[in-house]
């Protein structure tokens, strides 16, 4: 094949156009060794290598199977390494290759190791142009052990650094970042600030409500942005709505029920069970809402008898805590 012929192939043009500038930034002023992985990686590797030479970058190239056969280790010494392939589907080959290269890093004094592909199904690559479409309906079986490890780590602490998670999962920090972004994009994972319930409240109440459909819909709309409500569920049976709230004292619970529930037309029956703080959840999120004289539920807090010592609604300008 003639010199630079690889750059005439459309898949390689797409690869170079999509990733070339990011790869140049990665290389910087260093010398990089491109590793073409497997059969497809040979073509993408050669195409990228030819393009980098045209761009004036210092580069070398070698090839290997995912078990390391064919690798010319002398070309890696003291250089940055970029492993190139067509795609990552399950991530098995990626993990095997990256683990093998990390074992060689200190011995060969490799400066850094990155992985570039055209398509990345798993979010593990450092550089990728596109992923495969996510399943329309997600189930736990669609999440692999790495996904679950990432979710568990972030559940324990939402500020956990990707570098720490990378050590536990065997990915690079960029690979972890890609996976997290994918989980967020597919609405599987949310990362948000939570308040510790026990720091602000001392008790809770489970309120069963029976009412006509219009009233229940009105209550749902009213309570879905209430910072006191930690559980809200339409149910069937004796009640058709169950509301779980937290409060600083029994008086606030009584006031909530009288002013926010029994005052609604269409309420047929209310049953209340008061107890300590909920066993779970231990923390809850605040709705996005600016502090005003009127709370998210529509209550006029300036008319409340507890206004002067309010420690009920975080989102009221009267809140004293």
Describe the overall structure.
By secondary structure, the protein is of the alpha/beta class. Helices cover 34% and strands 21% of the residues. The chain folds into two domains: 5-185, 3-Layer(aba) Sandwich (Rossmann fold); 195-287, Alpha-Beta Plaits. The chain is built from eight helices and eleven strands. The strands form three sheets. A five-stranded parallel beta sheet has the order 2-1-3-4-5, sandwiched between helices. It is elongated.
Low-confidence parts: none
Strand element count: 11
Form type: elongated
CATH class of the largest domain: Alpha Beta
| Proportion of residues in β-strands | 15-25%
- Which topology of the largest domain does CATH recognise? Rossmann fold
Q: Label the structural class.
A: alpha/beta
Q: Main β-sheet, in a few words? A: 5 strands, parallel
Mean pLDDT: 86
Strand order of the largest sheet: 2-1-3-4-5
* Assembly state (oligomeric): single chain
**Terminus-to-terminus distance:** 75 Å
List the secondary-structure elements in sequence, H or E: HEHEEHEEHHHEEHEEHEE
Radius of gyration from the CA trace?
29 Å
Under the CATH scheme, which architecture of the largest domain would be assigned? 3-Layer(aba) Sandwich
Question: What is the helix tally?
Answer: 8
Helix content: 25-40%
Domain module tally: 2
């Amino acid at each position: 094949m003639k010199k630079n012929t690889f750059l005439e192939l459309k898949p390689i043009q797409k690869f170079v156009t999509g990733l070339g500038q990011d790869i140049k930034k990665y290389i910087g002023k260093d010398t990089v060794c491109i590793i073409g992985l497997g059969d497809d990686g040979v073509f993408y590797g050669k195409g990228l290598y030819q393009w980098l030479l045209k761009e004036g970058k210092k580069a070398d190239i070698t090839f290997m199977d995912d078990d390391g056969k064919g690798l010319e280790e002398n070309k890696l010494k003291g250089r940055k390494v970029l492993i190139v392939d067509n795609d990552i589907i399950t991530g098995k080959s990626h993990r095997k290759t990256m683990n093998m290269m990390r074992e060689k890093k200190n011995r060969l004094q490799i400066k850094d190791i990155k992985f570039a592909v055209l398509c990345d199904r798993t979010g593990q690559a450092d550089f990728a142009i596109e992923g495969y479409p996510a399943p329309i309906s997600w189930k736990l079986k669609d999440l692999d052990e790495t996904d679950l490890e990432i979710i568990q780590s972030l559940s324990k602490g939402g500020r956990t650094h990707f570098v720490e998670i990378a050590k536990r999962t065997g990915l690079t920090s960029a690979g972890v970042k890609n996976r997290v972004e994918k989980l967020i994009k597919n609405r599987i994972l949310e990362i948000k600030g939570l308040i510790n319930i026990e720091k602000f409240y001392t008790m809770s109440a489970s309120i069963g409500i029976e009412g006509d459909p219009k009233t229940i819909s009105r209550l749902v709309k009213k309570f879905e942005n209430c910072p006191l409500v930690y559980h809200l569920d339409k149910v069937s049976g004796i009640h058709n709505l169950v509301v779980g709230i937290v409060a600083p004292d029994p008086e606030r619970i009584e006031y909530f029920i009288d002013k926010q529930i029994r005052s609604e037309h269409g309420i047929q029956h209310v049953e209340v069970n008061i107890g300590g703080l909920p066993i779970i959840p231990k923390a809850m999120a605040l709705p996005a809402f600016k502090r005003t004289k009127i709370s998210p539920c529509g209550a006029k807090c300036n008319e409340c008898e507890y206004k002067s010592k309010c420690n009920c609604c975080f989102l009221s300008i009267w809140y004293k805590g």
